[in-house]
Amino acid sequence: MTSTQVDKDHHAADGTGDGGEGYQRGLGARQIQMIAIGGAIGTGLFLGAGKAIHQAGPSLVLAYAIAGLVIFFIMRALGELLMYRPVSGSFAEYAREFVGPFAGFVTGWTYWLFWVVTGITEVTAAATYMTYWWNIPQWVSALVFTFVLYGANLISVKLFGELEFWFSMVKVTAIVGMILICAGVLTVGFSDAGDTATVAHLWNQGGFFPNGVGSTLMTLQIVMFAFLAVELVGVTAGESKDPKTVLPKAINTVPWRIAVFYVGALVMILSVVPWTEFQPGVSPFVAAFEKMGLQAGAAIVNFVVLTAALSSCNSGMYSTGRMLRDLALNGQGPKVFTRLTRGGTPLVGLTFSAALMLVGVWVNYVAPGKAFEYVVSFATISGMWAWIMILVCQIRYRAQCDRGALPPSSFRAPGAPWTSWFALCFIGMVIVMMGLDEGARVSLYCAPVWALLLGVSYLVLKARDPEGAAFAKRR
């Protein structure tokens, strides 16, 4: 990096200026905290857990706990990098610096694709939830939601942060409320499930591993998909008012939110209702209230999971525009994506991404019953690439710190680099499990096609603009 770049990044890290590259620092501490808390509460938990429970039974709780530990290692690795240099490009910026310009190119475009696909996933889930109340075509709901969220993201980052704050507040309040209601069913015995609710459901219905350890391992791709978006705090670094203070606090909330919102919630649900009564494609939260005879509660939870899906899609639109602009600023994307509105919104990148998310409308039109299953596995593999890059960059950054080549971060990852290596091995195991799963294997077929497309695109970029392709090396 040049001295100018270092000065600019340190200026951004102090929370002054425009956030780097023209962005406005409109995200406050409470908004970043709720984005961090609510980012991991979405479709993967509310809808995807239904299939996972059916497949693994109570042992799904253990899968979430172990995967949650890995996520904490990933987030602490990201935190170390963020405190070294908090920038809006985040993972792509670190990949350029510590691996090379091509790695930054691949990471930026793959993370953009992840959020486009995730947006399709979340819109699909939201359209599915709407059928709980009204018998309307899924594609109609998907179309309306896409346009509404696109409009909301055009205004300003401050409005995005405020919407995410309240979206997350609804999700958090609902899950805590559900846990308390389930606790009441277990202790006081009210509702239709009061006479049968017992913690013994966790091991009495065929054991803790009713379908074997292998079936539990096969759910890891669904489990990891549920955690996708926890890294969103890295993308917000360039628009946070006080990143050096806010981001570490947000990252350190990872253990307790996983313990409460995933492990705690599933333990309660599976104690009130036997795992054998849950079905794939049906939200276990909605199903649990229906089994308890609380129809009003089921409707409320359905509204909450609808909010969760829309929240995640909203985050996706936010991320795609920023990632495209970062690529364009680094000479690795069309210059038209660098344009900002007066409110600091990357208009062209956001519009382009939202247009591609309309593919979700088409998917819901031609295959409404399989739409969620088709896109979830591909979102998982593309999202995990960002995690892989975070870990690789942290390992290389720590090595340079140990040699004295770079200053140490003020938020060092505990146990690194060994925890980072462990997380990389775990992600590798998940990818192997995806290869063994016939339903998820399609994502592994798509990955080489995407890699080939990126490789060819980079060669074309390098031939047309050699300096632009190697932009990261000049910094």
Give a description of the structure:
With 475 residues, the protein is mostly helical. The chain has helices spanning 3-13, 29-39, 43-46, 48-56, 60-84, 91-98, 101-130, 138-153, 157-187, 201-204, 213-218, 220-227, 232-235, 243-251, 254-272, 284-291, 295-329, 347-357, 359-366, 371-402, 418-436, 441-464, 466-469, 471-474. The longest helix has 35 residues, at 295-329. The radius of gyration is 22 Å and the shape is globular.
> What is the averaged pLDDT score?
79
* Largest pleated sheet: none
From the alpha carbons, calculate the radius of gyration and give it in angstroms: 22 Å
- Hey, roughly how much beta strand do the residues contain? under 5%
- The helicity comes to over 70%
Shape: globular
Structural class: mainly alpha
Q: How many DSSP H or I helices?
A: 24
Multimerization state: single chain
> Unreliable segments (pLDDT under 50, ≥5 consecutive)?
1-20
List the helices and strands and how they pair.
Elements: H1 3-13, H2 29-39, H3 43-46, H4 48-56, H5 60-84, H6 91-98, H7 101-130, H8 138-153, H9 157-187, H10 201-204, H11 213-218, H12 220-227, H13 232-235, H14 243-251, H15 254-272, H16 284-291, H17 295-329, H18 347-357, H19 359-366, H20 371-402, H21 418-436, H22 441-464, H23 466-469, H24 471-474
Helix pairs in contact: 2-9, 2-14, 5-12, 5-14, 5-15, 5-20, 5-21, 6-7, 6-20, 7-8, 7-17, 7-18, 7-19, 7-20, 7-22, 8-17, 8-18, 8-19, 9-15, 9-17, 12-20, 16-17, 17-18, 20-21, 20-22
